[in-house]
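Action item from last week, closing it out:
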Amino acid sequence: MSRVMQSPTPLFRALEDGSEEPIDVADLFRYQRYRWLSGESEKLATRYRKFNLQGLLDASVKTVGIYGISCIKLLKCVEGQFNKAFLLTMSNGFELIARLPNPNAGPAFYTTASEVASRHFLREKMSLPIPRIYSWSSEASNPVGAEYILEEKAPGQALGKIWDKLSLEAKLDMVNQVVDIEKKFASISIPKHGCIYYEADLKSSPVRYERLELNTSSKFGSFQDKQSPLFAIGPSASPVHWEREKAKMKLDRGPWENVADYALALGMNEIEWATSTARPRMNFHRSMTSPEKPSDYIALIEDYMALSPYLVSYPFTKLPNRISHPDLHLDNIFVDPDTNQITCIIDWQQTCVSPVSLHRSHPQMLELSAASQSRQGKHESDLLDHHYTAIKESDPVRWKVLADPFHQVKSNPITMVPGCWDREDLFSLRAALITAVAHWNDMGHGGTPCPVSFGEEELSQHQDEMDLLEGISTVLHQLQDDGLIPLGGMVRPGYYDRAMELNNHFRREFIALAENEHQRELHAKVWPYQ
């Protein structure tokens, strides 16, 4: 029988319904919000973060800096996918948030170092409403035993809690407030594409960086002043450039001069990684007998690299590099519930500076749901249209990108490349390249022969793979629409056993649809939740 670890400080866990339940020390480290129907062990391992609880409590007391104070309660916040977050209540009533990155959040050191510097830059230089950071460490070799950030508790209430209660007029006003924040992003261009750091944090690191010594005509003044630490633009901290074996490889992680250099670097990185690391494997969606080989992947990346100069050709190579929020969904925006004014924006991990052509077309909070024909769906469309209209008026550079009818055709291959083999998704990259080749003349390259072509046999094999994937997708979407199994197989812990029963049942039903023994074997292999 295992011994339950106890803490002198009461420990609790916040639940989805707003209630709390007591937990023990081991629960602080584990991921508890969801379970998975496939690959669960690996997914839980990448979300497990052990640390020294007493070290964290001591750090919080030191941060408050009042003699005799202590932490009287620690609440584990509802979990996201990439961090452990805790609300610490001190004996004088003061509250602060502790955030510790999970292993899947990004590279050691760079993830935290970049977030801290980026938030400082955005808060002080662009006057954005971001929680103040009290103390932090980007080195795990500290008394906490993990990287951490201790920060101000965001004032207000998460917009996601009140969004459905707001009128359309109030939601339109909220979109206007978000656009005002996006205007601040647009007010400053940065010379390279990468992540912001304190220069002092990179001086002893074996990475490329460039000090930010710019003056800007915006109202925010010079990037540097005597009171501020020196900022620098350094390598990307995105996990796709550092995952698994990549963390120890000398890859091109930036900073990059422009989108053309970035697009080329992505391909070179994948070829270098695949050459040394990738191994043949079965992709049953494509073949039951022939494995998918690293050479297949490298050939696909070489096709991408041949096309990439045309996907990012002038004027897109001259687009400015700007900061953007990495995940602006409703729960990352805090508002005053009485005035509906934005009070704070949280979750700036993975903030980067990138060309406008690589930015999202709209914030995640404006994603359309499946209910397009409903009144809710009409309101969602109105909000998205309102956002685009506002961008057209306030940011002509960004609007020029969005108005390009082939913007997605050009950008999709670039976004598909990083980590494509690891995601087991050569299909999507191949589909993006086939689409780009099909629109070669439409994109204005009619006077230049396309450097890539796909033969009839390859297109036929791709179509067969697409037909199979679409058939499976139809079944999986129906299971989600019926409230049985969510896409991706991520379920609440209390529903896990029932979901597994349903999964096994529908897998048998799917196999039974086969018309012959070969199809039965195929259906058994391609069911996603194994």
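Closing note: The longest strand covers residues 83-90.
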